[in-house]
Structure formats: C-alpha cells, structure tokens
Design brief:
Layout lengths: L5 E6 L4 E4 L5 E6 L9 E4 L4 E5 L4 E6 L3 H9 L2 E8 L2 E12 L7 E5 L2 E5 L2 H8 L11
Parallel strand pairs: 1-6, 3-7, 4-8
Antiparallel strand pairs: 1-10, 2-3, 4-5, 5-6, 7-8, 9-10
Length: 138
C-alpha cells in the first residue's frame, strides 16, 4: 500500500522561466514519471515557488530572480514544460497563488528531497471518507 501520510518535496536544481511578448510565463523543469494531477503553484514573492504537481509530489523552485519575481507575482497562470534533455515530454497550465510564506513541515530525506507531512483533511480526502462520526468528550 502506498504511503499516503506524506508528500515528497523535490528541489529542482536547474530551471528556466521564459516570458513571451504577451507577458505570459513558461517554466522549464525536468520531466517526472507520471502526469500531473490538479497542479498548482504557490509563490511567496521572495524567490521561492513550489509546484504542487499531484497528491504525493511537490517541486521546490529556489533562486527566482528579482526581475522574474515581479512578473510571476502578477501571473494568474503559468505554463509548465517538462523536458528530458531537449525533448518536451509534456506541457500543462498551472494556476498561480501568491502566499506570504511557504512552510515545509516534515523531514529531510536527501540533500534535495524532503517529506512533507499531509494535513488531516488531505488524509481524509485520500481515504475517501463518506461519513465522519465524532465521539468522546472535548
């Protein structure tokens, strides 16, 4: 059974962000194995963004330049392009949410990978609960 109690946070060491003449952004990252599922991007306005690629994988983008920061902070949607060397594996649009702070609660498992503990609501959703009964005294 797959461990549904954490999400793996990978640090993307090298990525490129490009802008077209219409002010639209595309982010080039390394391809991952599976298709993304309801991806979203959180951006803190201070050089760090995280791509929530699916329920179990988060990609951390560090070192976003100040010049890029202002454009990314204004973006509503960003195109992600996953490549294997120079070959495009997939592209997908991702909504951008600007947040004050990005927090990782979990543990480091490698130099470039962390486990983020899921929230109670995420576990309940993953379990597929149809009823919840609360018992006992508070």
């Amino acid at each position: 059974m797959e461990n549904q109690y954490y999400a793996v946070v990978e640090k993307q060491d090298f990525f490129e962000i490009i802008e077209n003449k219409f002010g639209e952004l595309a982010v080039f990252i390394d391809a991952r194995e599976n298709e993304p599922l309801n991806p979203s991007l959180e951006y803190n306005g201070d050089g760090v963004a995280v791509l929530h690629r699916d329920d179990t994988r988060i990609i951390k983008l560090e070192g976003i330049t100040k010049e890029t920061s202002s454009v990314l902070a204004e973006a509503e949607v960003v195109m992600f392009v996953e490549t294997d060397e120079d070959v495009v594996v997939r592209t997908y649009a991702v909504p951008v949410q600007t947040v004050e702070r990005i927090e990782f609660r979990g543990r480091q498992i490698r130099a470039d990978e962390f486990e983020r503990y899921k929230q109670k609501s995420e576990i309940i959703d993953a379990f597929g609960a149809v009823n919840i009964w609360k018992s006992g005294e508070k």
